[in-house]
User: Fold these one by one.
Assistant:
Number 1:
Amino acid sequence: MAMSDTSTVTAARQRSARRRHGLLYLGLILLGLVAPFVAYPVFLMKILCFALFASAFNLLLGFAGLLSFGHAAFLATGAYITGFLLSTYPGLTPELGILAGTLGSVVLGLLFGLLAIRRQGIYFAMITLALAQMMFFLFIQSPFTGGEDGLHGVPRGELFGLFSLQSNLALYYFVFAVFVLGFALIQRTVHSPFGQVLKAIRENEPRAVSLGYDTDTYKLVAFVISAGLAGLAGATKTLVFQLASLGDAHWHMSGEVILMTLLGGVGTLLGPLVGSSLVIGLQHQLSQSPLGDWVSVILGSIFVLCVLSFRSGIIGELQKLVKRNFK
Amino acid sequence: MPREFVLETHGLTKTFRGFTAVDQVDLQITEGHIHALIGPNGAGKTTVFNLLTKFLPPTRGEILYRGKPITHMKANQIARLGLVRSFQISAVFAHMTVLENVRVALQRKLGTSFHFWKSERSLAALDERARELLAQVGLERDADSLTVELPYGRKRALELATTLALEPTVMLLDEPTQGMGAEDVDRVVALIREAAKGRTVLMVEHNLSVVSRLCDRITVLARGAVLAEGDYASVSADPRVREAYMGSEATEEEEA
């Protein structure tokens, strides 16, 4: 009797939590729909692309406990493949270009993952960094990337061959849809049977092995999903700026995505979104102010402050606050 | 000949860079027994555990499960055979709820563990069984707590429930009462006795009163090799054991 009581209470609590989350996401979607009428769409699209990139990274660090220091390689692979295909084949529609870029990153993620996944902690981070650096030099040397110049003037084309994406507003809604789909996939992955095993591996890998799970394979699948979504972010970004360049492949980019994720709150679904908005917003504001040259210093200081005083990031700290005061 | 030994080792040896941690160990675990592995600190008990469950590869020797060699299987495959281990330090998933801890052990059988596109609500079908298992170890009221918030003794009880969820044929428990107060020790002894019904248990244990109360058979390890084997009365009467084990027990008590 007592047992069924607690389980019905739990069920009710879970239902109300789900309702709250549903309302929150609905609100965010409405916000996303009206945002381009308030702020400059290109700026918003940049945030969305990086938010997707950071969310993909967070899936790995926050929910599988894997710190990749080479995620720039996947962003750049998506960007370059999409940029190259759309520039070279004028008949190709943008969604197919993006799909090809994403698939390219999935394949690269599988290769990286097979080489790196057996290593733990810092060794995993170092191997992903080394592999990403190899990709960087590959991108400089290859003719199809435009080397130091990158690929310019990538055509945005017409979605499904029907809707022109020339106007920033039209493109914004396309990018927003891509983001929502990517984010939904991450949200589902985290809250799936697979996500449960992933969390168990993050919490205690030897125990997960002793329960019969082949943990390397689970980590590999998570790595490939994360790489694919990072590639999707890169591919979409190419469409926004009509540009794919070496900056995407540089290890700075791998560092920046770590910064965004930690600042917003690692292991929380909304953290990367908040973190990337903050970082992109600051970069944007500072680049127009006399402090422009100090962007890295200021971001670095904020990062140090975050690690020292609010380690679970903005969303993480907010969640703690809510938990302390309302439960 | 009936297969009375569920787990056997022949000449099991592990060397680390010239240091022999486990030396030619022959173990025979009888089906249905609670079998203890005891010995002074550094005798190689945990290393034997790690070898049996393939968390370490043996340097030499053979491991047989129901007469079949399992020496070259992977750790997770050993678990799937039904040999499930626990760890010296309580191994729980701290930032998952108590219910989720047990459910993650149950869910492998659903065969949907790679389905990242499916809702976790599909796991609700396992909740009832998970609650039953929690009730078995007296944790039914903690089902929705975050595991990190449980006191140590309850974490160990949860670990046992999680292990039981796999319906193991052989449970390997590494110091299940380590770091517990007397009250918790009694509880865990009762739980192990209950859980051992219909299965085989191999446990590493320091607490000799626990060993004397629970175990059918005892193997004493010293310096990586088997020193003696038998029931509690014969082992505790063996002068070599008294010298090697009881002699060092005094120092252990000082440490504690």
Number 2:
Amino acid sequence: MTDITENLKAVSHGIEVRDVSKNFGDFQALEDVNLIVPDGSMTALLGPSGSGKSTLLRTIAGLETPTTGSVLIGGEDQAKKPVRTRNVGFVFQHYAAFKHMTVFDNIAFGLKVRKWKKDKVRARVNELIELVQLTGLGGRYPSQLSGGQRQRMALARALAVEPSVLLLDEPFGALDAKVRKDLRTWLRRLHDEVHVTTIFVTHDQEEAMDIAEQIVVMNEGKIEQTGSATDLYDEPANEFVMGFVGEVNSLGGKLVRPHDTEILPVETPDSVAVTIDRVVRLGFSGRVEMLTANGGQEVWAQLTRSELETLDLEPGSRAYVRPRPDAVTREDTGALDDAFKEESPAIHRPTPAEPGLPV
Amino acid sequence: MSGEGRLTRYGLRFVALFYLAALLLLPIGVALVKTFDDGIGEVITQITKPDALHALKLSVITVLIAVPLNTIFGIAAAHVIVRTNFPLKWLIGAIIDMPFAVSPVVIGLSLILVYGTGGWFGADLAAQGIQIIFSTPGIVMAVIFVSLPFVAREVIPVMQEIGTDQETAAETLGASPWQTFYKITLPAIRWGVTYGIVLTTARALGEFGAVTVVSGNISGETQTLPLYVSKQFETFNSVGAYSASLILAILALGTLLFMNLLRRRED
């Protein structure tokens, strides 16, 4: 379409992370991380806080030096390259707007330090202002913008220098839910237009699944699994990935998806007794919320309308649940609870089965 | 609001205003009135006396040397304390505060111990023809010493407040450390620096104790404005003392006003 989108496509490079470990004193933030990010793709680093996802992003940018291992951009080892010559676009959670500069000057910053001529700077900045839909706001100061506008300005500022990769650290983390959703859709469209290799950090699985082609699930400094949203959902590498991507119930020591949870009117050897708590009809599908008879643990099942009608469940009545025969299941060892001690993303996490277990 | 609440409120206001009036406004007001007791002509005569003009010149020179040096040092020290992992930075922080804790007279005496005729370097320096004590360099050093903390103490909290995101962003955009400092950090801390400069200037202009000790207080040679004021007062030339005080006050207020104007223009 425009110059900048053509240029960005041309300068974009793939990223390779090889055996990277990072220690902060005794704390190991990254452990043997290996990752390939194809040129022009969009990748999400997904994980709970403290999983090392931001450290990995900062290591790729050169803001942290790996203790061991290497980062390659466009096949070139970045070890000897300081941040300022690495040519990465970096976007911060809290925008890092230059508060004393107008939107125009913020976006122009990287070009001015590269000693571009004034008229070229103006042309480029105006093009970017249009690209990020801030037309007419070039003269404003960051304090006069909304959070979403500030983040788009920060994005334009990062794109102005034609980075070979674009790195976003929880870019929507400081925004409210509605703006967050709009902005991520917008980012996806922008990426379809400019095709610069993009990595963004998030702890929101919905956000990752919505816009990333490749999702990297991280936990305790390690990569648990890398794949598409479908891969992660259908073939989770372990219980952590299963619990973090998509929703799960814990049934008799097994993790199972709510849509793979079968409700039976009669007891079978592999079923768990539950009391029906609530039946919610949502048009075509429906949701049944239950409490296990042994321990009062929350379980829910997602059913089609016809299944709901056949079962004809009443709140307070007894039923039995089990994984469907073809269900994806993983052992529940309680590792998930450890990972989610501090935050609970958009995941339905049942309380522990037996009373007295640490939460 | 209850009667008791109102009483407390008015009581507090009275205390605050009385305090200001009794300790600040009244004495300054009386001094101002006293200055013009013998008419404006006498004031002009007093402040154009050679010794008065010399004292003014010496004070201004001292400020023009001490304030820029302390500004640069203060910003550098704040940077080290806030932005680096330098292992001894706690020590720098403690040393910066020393002039607040130590009496200016002691500061003056300690300078004599090091640079005076009988001091550590005094004899060697004298052999080179350099005189520090009882001379302008000694006065400047004393003033630098006592006004050292202000810029650093004003800038440190501002630097902590702004965080490192903006500086990191500039770095990723290709800015060199100097460009980052000049284009990002300095504008972000500018009001801390400004306020620090105002305080440093006020302190440098008004310093009496340390300067008395190191200068020798020789009229027309090593006398700064505050020393001149004191001398005039001691020799019963009260109009001379008040007139010179007026100049001191105008210089200090002028600095404050100038900085405020700068700020207003920017907003």
